[in-house]
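User: I'm putting together a small comparison set for a docking exercise, and I want a reference complex before I start. The sequence is below, and the ligand is zinc ion. Could you produce the 3D structure with the ligand included, as structure tokens?
Assistant: Of course. I'll restate your input first, then give the structure tokens for the complex.
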Amino acid sequence: MTYIPVSLRRIVSERSGDRCEYCLRPQWTSVLTYEVDHIIAESHGGDTVEENLCLACPRCNRLKGSNLSSIDPVTKDITPLFNPRKDVWREHFLLDGALIAGKTNIGRTTVRLFNLNTPEEVSLRREWIDLGIYP
Ligand SMILES: [Zn+2]
């Protein structure tokens, strides 16, 4: 794992609004420190530069791993994952109550790989919505 300078971590964190850029969970709702994710993993040649970094909760970061793509559950095609630096969240995802639904092939593929709608995640999200802190 590459050392990420504090100044770069700060830029990534502030740019995200201190939220996971995949599931939008606010950092302050977690006891775990959010991680700086290489969108294109270093193992695939991704650089440690602003344009290739995003803030990710440990859960999303773990499930993403070094993946760049996965299988769209509808078309069964190999499909790129959501890229927070290139893609706009609301163009690919829709909040249906506390469920995160994929609106596009990229959205569906990311929801599936990241397993974004486990009963626990949906329950937490419902609580945050009720409190007015999500999204
Ligand atoms: Zn997340």
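The chain has a mean pLDDT of 97. The helical segments are 6-15, 58-64, 89-92, 105-114, 119-131.
User: Thanks, that's exactly what I needed.
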